[in-house]
Structures are given as structure tokens and as C-alpha cells.
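Input sequence (245 aa), recorded before submission:
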Amino acid sequence: MSARYRQGTKTVLVAGWLALVPVAAARPPAPEPPSEPSSGAPGGGSRVIDRVVAVIGTQVLTLSELEFETRVSLVQRGAVRAAEAPLDEKTLRGALELAINYRLLVAGADRLQAFQAERSEVEARLRSFRDRFEDETSLLAFLARHDADLEQLTVVLERNVRAERILDSRIRLRAQVSDADVRRYWEEHKGTLGGPFEAVRDTIREKLFRERYTRLAGEEFQQVRESARIRRVAPFARLQEGEQP
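Predicted structure, C-alpha cell format:
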């Protein structure tokens, strides 16, 4: 779930760090709804084929969807092998929070019929995703292993594109870093940075921009959640660290 943002003439690549933005629950978690059984289970019993992990407004997010979106994000960040490994709870919790945030942003844009994704941008994102694999066969095998197809992948990528554009439109200008900010940081940390100011200026600017963007993104996500109805379902129903019931 990465996006490129322009700061002046420099392009800054934001790749995955928004998943770490702390957010609070808009509503206390509700009890877990019953899982859907499979009528064809051996021995006359029931077998869980999927489970709900969150309800965001009227949208239901299942565990299989969350896991697939998490793996897509890992592949986009270059971690193709990691995307095939078991996903731990911490990873899924971070992915769930970002999935909630993105769905809320897109739902708000849908109500206003705004921020439609450009076909060319979605196609470019899909090409970039394909390039992470050795060939088309490897890509299709990845999708098949996770019970997905190219259409589902495109839906995920398109939602990410839209959410990133919405978020960027709201906070990019406020995240800009001035020359004075960069100089001040260098003056305060030049003893540990090493090298002259000109050699580290761009690195400092990017660091400050990322930090400011992350903070503003957290505030924006908090705001869109204030009027949202969100229910996390076990095992994700436990409050995140720092959240208030």
C-alpha cells in the first residue's frame, strides 16, 4: 500500500509506514457474530469456511479478505517471500486498521462521487505488482493459493489508489517541510548526522516530511472514524494499545 508524494520537485516514496499510524476505535467492539458453517462438512458437522473480522458501516470484512490484502501489501513492498509465510497477529492487526481507514475514506468519497481512480493509475499499479513476480504463471499461482483472481487484485489496488489520493489531497500541503525546518533540525543534530549540511539536507527533509505526514494521517484517520460505526470481531475485538472503550 504504497504511494508517491511530491514535495516541491522531489518525489518521496511512502511505502507501508502508514500501517503503523496509531488510531482509536470509533465504537466499543461488539460480540462476535456466528460463523458461517459449511453444509458439506464430513460427519454431519460444520466447518468454518471464513469468518468476519470487522464490520465497517455496512461493509463486512472477512478474514480471507484481510489476509489477501495483507499479502498484497507485502508484495508491493517487495516482500514476496514474506507474503507466502504465515501471518502473525501483529501484522494482521496493523493491516486491519489500515483496511478500516481506507474503506472509510473511500466510502466518504463514494457519497460525494469524488476521487475516482484513473484507469491508467490502476493499470500502472497492477503492472508494478506483476513485476514483483518472475512471470505471469507465478502471479496466477500466488492468486490461486489465496483463492483470489486478477479481478479481486484489481479491486484491492484500485481502493488503495483512491484512498491514497484522498488522504494525500487532505494533508500533503500541511506536511510540507520548510528550509528553516530542515536547517533547524540539522543545527540540533549535526553532531550525530555527520557530513556538511548540503550532504544531508535531502535526507533530513524526507525524514521530517514522513514524520509529519504520518502524524497528520493519524489525525485524519481519527477524524473519519469519529462518526463511523466500526465493529471488530474476535480475535481482533480486543482494544488496541492506548484505545479507550
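Checked by second reader. The chain has seven helices and five strands.
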